[in-house]
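Collaboration report, partner site 2.

Our partner group contributed sequences for two proteins of shared interest, and the home lab folded both. The records are reproduced in the order in which they were received, starting with the first partner submission.
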Amino acid sequence: MQLFLNDDQGRFEPRLAESRGAERPVAANRHRAPRLSVVIPAFNEATRLPPFLNEIRDYFTHDFDGDYEVIVVDDGSIDNSRALLHELAEAWPQLLVISHTQNRGKGCAVRTGVLAAGGDLVLFADADGATPIAQEARLRAMIEQGAELAVGSRTTSAAARTAGRSVTGRVFAWLARRLTGVDVQDPQCGFKMFRRSIGHVLFELCDESGYLFDLLILGCARQLGFRIAETGIEWHEQPGSKVRLVRDSVRMLHGLWPMRRRIARLAGAQRQWYELPLVQRGSPSISERPVGQIAVVVESAGPGAGS
């Protein structure tokens, strides 16, 4: 199935799928929310995305018995991504393709997908397949152990990165921790999972359309007292990255300076005005939990990380 979002004015409108009366793709005989939604932002990914989607389909068909959905948000691609995705969706009932009419940025694409997700759990993953989809089990284990947001980390020996990107990533993460208070070793890793209710709260707040959206949602999660866990994952750098090391690093560093104020403003508005009827986890309400209450768990992927 394909849905088209009219975001030419720069507005986020992820709920158009519902307003137009479109039916969600569901497995046969399923009358409840899927166990897991996988959200993948994609911009000109006609080459790298199809092999990753095949991997996802094989894995979830075997391990989830079809009880899942995959949401690919085509962020205004100008290659033949849209045609390829349409062809796949016709033969894959669990695949939903949402298309932005123009390129709005990775943060916007992830936001669109998360707010459209219907699964009990939501995973967002990068389109290049750098992290094998089987690594979702590591994040899911963190959620089952009580975390509300699970973050993959490439800071372990199981992550194969070039020296330049590794150093740049570590320097950025170090600065981010000190400037924003987000105590996560690898905030920019494109492999995160959360309960749907938590994801909806965070991405309703998110007004960052670019690469810094990860940092924004982590900062808001910390401010709102959500439990965050971080675990090492297997990761292999892929050719064809859309990130330009120098240009995008400079832009992201520039965006770090006002980030603490943005996080405080958004989280403060959330605590003041937003009710959370979706959050039913048997723990104190957001207003009752101390700001910054956070449990960070870091595990190494180690041997057998792909299991």
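Second partner submission, folded after the first:
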Amino acid sequence: MTVDRRNLLKGCILGASAAVFANGPASARTQNGTSFVLIHGSWHGAWCWANVTPHLMGAGYGVVAIDLPGHGLGATFPPSYFERPLNMDDFSTEESVFADIPLSAFTASIVDGVRTAKAGGAKRVILVSHSMGGVPMTFAAEEVADEIDGLIYISACMMPPGKPWGDYFEVPTQADEKVGPLLIGDASQIGCARLDPLSADPTYREAFKAALAADVDDDVLQAALNMMIPDAPFQMYFEVPLLTTTGFGALKRSFVKCTEDYAIRLATQDLAIADLDAAFPDNPTRTVEVASSHEVMLSKPKELAEAMIGLA
């Protein structure tokens, strides 16, 4: 029997994402009155929280892990992605679906997650974001500040009013970040930050692990690579947040710093925290450190869950 690798991989990716996301509404039922809405980062989906969720639920918390637009069951792949060997000319120039998805769609999905948590009985809702997920979480938090009770950024994009996250791309503290060299194509032209999670090139795979997942078990990382998508939103990094003292600025805000992160360097995390604290000096960010790479959900799920519970 001949197996179509493209369909097989699509099935694996979609099936795994659906399995985790399907647990969302059921997991939303809280025992202690508090639920977390989990917002993934670039190239990921709701599936990335799978090893964190049991620790949160075991402690009585409700959990809603969402798929942002263009991810999970809503993912659309560049046509050339499943053609191996990869045609780099095509793959580096094909426009991404993310070129046409506005930031408002991402914030709307987070608001839907809040409503799902409320429907599950939550009296308190904490938004939690990783990496890129911090951008739409920041905008959503201003929109529904009266419906949520706190924010937790996990090595995530946290920016002050008037400053887009894109401004942090060029700060000196990012000089030795390792994700940039992995990117394929011109993000401003194809409308996304594009990687090749399915690459068989040992040099690329080694660099990928060093950049994002140096402390992740090889088998776990391979499973994650089979579920990751190649494209991630890009334009949202240049959206300017308008944050108010009575909205976003009034919310309890926390940051989990990943000390061995080569995507968002520790010094850059500290810079973002300092910038936001300067904007809202009467409501400083609470911080906790986890000794991990950027993929802390995969490498240190128990420690991450404990940090989240401590910050809730």
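Feedback sent to the partner group on the second submission included the following. The CA atoms of residues 5 and 11 lie 10 Å apart. Residues 1-26 have pLDDT under 50 and may be disordered.
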